[in-house]
Every structure is written in C-alpha cells, then in structure tokens.
Amino acid sequence: MASLNAAKRHLRAAMKVKLQAVSQDSVVSQSSTVYSTLKTVKGYVGAKRISVFLSMPTGEIQTDAIVRDALAAGKEVFIPYLHKNPVEGPGLPARVMDMVRLRDLADYESLQPDKWGIPSVDPATVPARQRVFGGADAPHSDSTLLDLVLMPGVAFDTDPANGAVRRLGHGKGFYDYFLFRHRLKAGSLGKQESPVLLLGLALSEQFLSPSEGAVPVGPLDQPLDGLILGDGTVRGPLAPANTTD
C-alpha cells in the first residue's frame, strides 16, 4: 500500500507540472470539443439524472456548457457537495461527498466560488435539496439514484487487459467512497441490474502515453466505463458503440 500511495503522489506531482503548461485557450477549445462529443454519447443523451463536477478555473475540462445543456434538456442535474461524515468510526473518512440537485439555471448561476474557484452550493440550502444520500427532509432523496456520473481526474489511461479506463484522482477518495455508497443504496432498492454509468472528462494531456507509464490503481479504485478527451477521442468500453447517429 505504501508503494502504491508513493506512485500516486509521484504521478500527481508530474501531472501538476505538465498541466501548468497547458494554455487557457487550449483548455477552452478542448472543453468545447468534449461538450460536443458528450452530446453524441447515448449514455448522456438518455440519462435522466446525472451528476456533473464543477470545474476549477484552470487545468481541467470546463463543464459550464454541459451543466447548461443538461438543465435545458430537462435532466435532473446534481453537483458534488463535501461535508462532515455523519457516521464516525475506525477507518471511515472524516469528510464525504454527496450529490445535491440544482433547482434550475438561476440556481446554478447563483453559486459562489470556493477557495479553489469552484462554484459551490451554500450549505444552508442543502437540507431543502434533493440529494443522493439525503433523508426524508429532501424531496424524493430516499429513492434517488444516478444514471450517469461525469468525473474529473488528474490522469487517465486504459487497462491493456480489458480496456477499462483507469483514473487517478486528487487523493481524497471522495468519488470512490461515494460510488461505494451508491452501489449499496442501489442494492437496497433492488436496482443492482441498473448500475450507474461512469464517464471521465479530460484534457488530452491527462491521458498517459505508454512512455509516461501507467496509472497506479489499487483494489478500491473504481474503473470507468468511458473517457472523453479534449481531442474528441472516446476511450474505454464506451467507445465507439454507445454514440448516437
């Protein structure tokens, strides 16, 4: 485990340097390409309830156009919300991630940036919002499951053995624990046959070439179903069959 964590730290440091060299013009252009490509993916077109990460100002795909498109299409759009873990115990994370629903475009546009420049939900509004792990105090939260999760990351590649997309996150484990809890909830609702689709969105520079090595993964790291890159390429099991005509 120590060697795995060291390998992940090393790759994150290398990717930080690499991504600092990507111009903002390139980020904007690649984000537009990812948005256009996503709109051809059946898993997105047909999804009724999706979660979308909201972007840092630099160094990753910008998702503003995706959020606006999803809301305009009538999808239920959920965004990440980090909070103290209500369940305490040995080995459990101190902070966890839930997904909370945006009410509409005006609600989205009212979000204020956090210290990383990421638009964020006001914690005071959370109890009144539909959310994945909410209780009876939020509309329909008890039965809420996602169809699609659009995920960020630091680096990606594909497993040569099975083509699955491997993802290196920022090291906090928020998405892995969220997806674990989502699987448990789906099972409790008898929905194991309808797993959530996991789709990464990334700059082309975030996809490792063979000369750069491989994404180090452990048993708790969740592989993705697909990855859309800034050049329009779709990687993983999702490519190329799950696109619309």
Mind explaining what this structure looks like?
The C terminus is likely disordered. The longest helix is centred in the N-terminal third of the chain and has 19 residues. A hairpin with a 5-residue loop joins strand 4 and strand 5. The chain contains 6 helices and 11 strands. The radius of gyration is 17 Å and the shape is globular. With 245 residues, the chain is of the alpha/beta class. Strands 3-2-1-6-9-10-11 form a 7-stranded mixed β-sheet, sandwiched between helices. A two-stranded antiparallel sheet has the order 4-5. It has a two-stranded antiparallel ribbon with strand order 7-8.
Give a quick rundown of the structure:
The chain has 245 residues and is of the alpha/beta class. Helix content is 27%, strand content 20%. The termini are far apart.
Silhouette? globular
The parts where pLDDT drops under 50 for at least 5 residues are: 241-245
Terminal Cα separation, in Å?
Answer: 45 Å
Structural class determined from secondary elements: alpha/beta
In percent, how much strand structure appears in the residues? Answer: 15-25%
Please trace the helix and strand order, writing H or E for each element. Answer: HHHEHEEHEEEEEHEEE
Give the biggest beta sheet: 7 strands, mixed
Helix content: 25-40%
Radius of gyration: 17 Å
How many DSSP H or I helices?
6
How many strands? 11
Order of adjacent strands in the largest pleated sheet: 3-2-1-6-9-10-11
pLDDT averaged over residues: 90
